[in-house]
Design goal:
single chain, alpha/beta, N-utilizing Substance Protein B Homolog, Chain A, Rossmann fold, 2 domains, 8-stranded mixed β-sheet, 4-stranded antiparallel β-sheet, 21 helices, 15% strand, binds S-adenosylmethionine, RNA binding, RNA-binding, EC 2.1.1.176
Length: 474
């Protein structure tokens, strides 16, 4: 039974490594085409996430055990070694002999010639009875920079740890890094046009009722305490819920829409936030949803239909064109810019992202985000608001972007205090976020705070001419 979990984990990890797939997508596709027992699925998912998360720490320990280092090791063999060391070094309830045996059998089937090598390396690993933490401690020399030491111990790229240290200092950085290695939980957003979290939970019985709890982060959220195949959950088919991270659920309410608000969602993607806006508009809204990818907007429309929501128009376009598009100029009361970003806040849900992104890409994204924010400000009417959000923790894609645009706009755009529009529980923890002129203008929910993804959000208001001439903000 266990062998099946390990074979599946190997196949999924190889897909991610060789074809650049996202872990959640590769796992879902694998489970759809393979009939795995629930226990095997759970172990397979654990091995895939853990191996990807701890890849750097695992490689640091493996390197000296391989005579010629890891550089020339065949990808299939490397995947087998990494996933085996993950199980031996990080999982306590998995018998070592089974891991070793399955690794050698797997290697015989996939890369026969390397079976002896895999056996030898893993036996050396298990002969050394020290814990993984002790093995890593011995490898991390005191002479190396603190960021590199943290990066090896908690398994992240150096550049990301360096950036976090500058922003958050040692203690919070360690907490963020540790939180990024935990298992993600599933949260559901309850369709505000149809129900409430409390009513949803009360409508369930038995095990299902036990598995659901109210979110402490979002008034629209419900947490799932145990695994559930959401797509087979009745309320999902009935359009009562959507899968969404709880921190992400905080963004759309910052637009403060009612049923008349003309909304532009400039980077709508699959529409997780577009549909929330429509729900907040009472189920019949007025949203123009833009994305550069047609296929995403097709899925957005399907979601709106499943949820019974009306009033969304989709538009395939490069959002930057809104900067000069006369038809859309100042045509909206509220604009959401949920910008493309490095995703370095979604660490536990997409553990492979940390190995794919670079500081240079984050810098490029920062430039794109500024262009998109300029376009968003062109489309909003005087007096209207733009909510800017990302799922990254990096200041250059967050505070630096909005700061530069605000400076550029020279007084015609201002930050708004979003604190009153956040749930009490979130407000209470906002102690270390940026405060400008006595007003908290943005928050970054970090993953160690509530076990959610990391999210940045802020709200800007375009002042109307009268206000700029010295009048009151209406
Ligand atoms: C963070 S995702 C949006 C997620 C979405 N708001 C949600 O909640 O489901 C960013 C989106 O921006 C889109 N995008 C990237 N560059 C774009 C551009 N220049 N114009 C329009 N959309 C763009 C991507 O296709 C992606 O769907």
């Amino acid at each position: 039974m266990t062998a099946a979990a390990r074979i599946s984990a190997y196949e999924v990890l190889l897909e991610i490594e060789e074809r650049g797939k996202y872990s959640n997508v590769a796992l879902q596709q694998h489970y759809r085409s393979h009939n795995l027992h629930e226990r095997d699925k759970a172990l397979c998912t654990e091995i895939v996430y853990g191996t990807l998360q701890y890849q750097r720490s695992i490689d640091a320990v493996l390197e000296p055990l391989c005579k010629n280092g890891l550089a020339g090791v065949d990808t299939r063999v490397l995947v087998i070694l990494r996933m085996s060391v993950y199980q031996l070094g990080y999982l306590s309830r998995v018998p070592g002999y089974a891991v070793l045996n399955d690794a050698v059998e797997l290697c015989k089937a996939k890369a026969k010639k390397a079976a002896g090598f895999v056996n030898g390396v893993l036996r050396s690993f298990t002969r050394d009875k020290r814990s993984m933490a002790e093995k890593l401690d011995a490898l991390i020399e005191t002479g190396i920079p603190v960021a590199t030491r943290m990066a090896i111990r908690y398994s992240y790229p150096d550049w990301f740890v360096e950036d976090l240290l500058l922003q958050y200092g040692d203690l919070r950085t360690v907490a963020i890094l540790q939180a990024g290695n935990e298992r993600p939980h599933i949260a559901l957003r309850v369709n505000a046009a149809k129900s409430t979290p409390r009513a949803l939970i009360e409508g369930q019985s038995g095990e299902m009722r036990e598995a659901l709890s109210l979110s402490s982060v979002s008034p629209f959220g419900v947490r799932l305490l145990s695994g559930l195949d959401v797509e087979h959950f009745e309320p999902y088919a009935e359009g009562l819920v959507s899968v969404q991270d709880e921190a992400s659920m905080l963004v759309a309410p910052l637009l403060k829409v009612d049923e008349h608000t003309r909304v532009l969602d400039l980077c709508a993607g699959l529409g997780t936030k577009t549909t929330q806006i429509l729900e907040l508009q009472g189920g019949v809204g007025n949203v123009t949803a833009v994305d550069i990818h047609h296929h995403k907007l097709v899925r957005l429309k399907a979601s709106a239909e499943r949820l019974g929501l009306k009033g969304v128009k989709t538009m395939v376009a490069d959002a930057r064109s809104f900067r000069t598009n006369a038809r859309h100029r100042e045509a909206y009361d509220a604009v959401l810019l949920d910008a493309p970003c490095s995703g370095m806040g979604v660490l536990k849900r997409r553990p492979e992202i940390r190995w794919r992104k670079t500081r240079e890409e984050s810098q490029q994204l920062s430039r794109l985000q500024k262009e998109l924010l300029r376009a968003a400000l062109s489309a909003v009417r005087p007096g209207g608001v733009v909510v800017y959000a990302t799922c990254t923790l990096l200041q250059r894609e967050n505070e630096d972007v909005v700061d530069e645009i605000i400076r550029e706009e020279g007084g015609s755009v201002t930050f708004e205090n979003i604190l009153p529009d956040l749930p009490e529980t979130v407000r209470a923890r906002c102690t270390t976020d940026t405060v400008r002129q006595g007003q908290r203008y943005s928050i970054t929910v970090t993953p160690e705070q509530y076990g959610t993804d990391g999210f940045f959000m802020t709200r800007l208001r375009k002042l109307d001419n009268q206000v700029q001439k010295g009048g009151e903000l209406k």
